[in-house]
Amino acid sequence: MRAWSVFRKSMREQARDVLVLVLTLSFAPLMVVFYFLFFPSGSTTYTILVMNLDAGAQSADGSFLTAGEQVAQAIGRITYADGKPLLKFRLVTDRAEGERLLRDRKATAMVIIPAGFSRAVQAALGGNPSAATSLTLVGDLTNPYYSVASVLASSAAEAYVRQATGTQPFLTYEERPLGASAARSEFEIYVPGILVFAAILLVFQSSMVVAREVESGTLRRLQLTRMTAFDLFSGITATQVLIGVGGVVLTLLTALALGFRSQGPLWVVVLVGALTCLSMTGVGLMVACFGRTVSQAFVIANFPLALFMFFTGAMFPIPAVPLFSVAGRSVGLYDVLAPTHAVVALNKVLTLGLGPGGVAYELSMLLILSVVYFAIGVWLYQRTHLRTG
Q: What's 46-183's CATH class?
């Protein structure tokens, strides 16, 4: 009977805490909905950059062979069994621009078709056994999608040669990794994501700190001093960012002690970590607006945590979902999530060896999103907890 009494008491208390109950029950179903919305096709399309240096070749019968162009089209014709595209090729004329897109992970791999490719195909058609040519594959070897996309692209090129000449493919491949991506161990590949995760954990810390102020009654006493939401959040944010940066630095030092090697300046890594911590504190402040107890804040914080874990590339690779372009730069669906930019920036610095100039865009986006998150948090908290009368 005592157990029954405890059960009834627990059920009544849980029924009063409707928000936590609803979030607990709906968390996993909402994740299914998010995946359905973000990946409606149920499959990943890999963007392949094609730099076609082949000028074509005139045949003896007067026809003109454009083998390089046909290879690019063959890459674009690779589909899933249901006809949905598996590879999408994009022509580029400047190698530096192509490598920038690869570093930003707006594309997966780049295929460079050499000059004279059509002449090599013609030679094979004429029965020349010494006909040979080489395709260059460029990419970030730490990108989990690179190996899949490069194999598919090379398979498309070989299939074209086999069909066009009726002979076994005579292609050779030269792989050009970006930065030090070819020399990274599996442990080193995961370090950038772990550094971002160290900052993401601030969502819990900062939201629970604010919720504790409400639950303990401290907030009411502070209101007598005419404190504003901006005052409250500024003080809490400064403390939390300091703690978060300490966590990022400690994580980085641990990785370095275990043999991790950074190809770029470490102070840029710390700067990226600091801005990421700033943005995550802003998210934590927003979370606190919907909870009046520490336990509520803890449960609600799991939602942004899941978004940051699954949809930013911090822990799992995600395909790009471009929405529009601004000044030649693609803006994707996940770009509203600050850790998306942190993952790209840390990979550029730690693996590709870029400095502050190479991650200027990501640093700017982290700062802008931090300001936006903070402003939304102040506005929400002013309305939910600091309104009087």
A: alpha beta
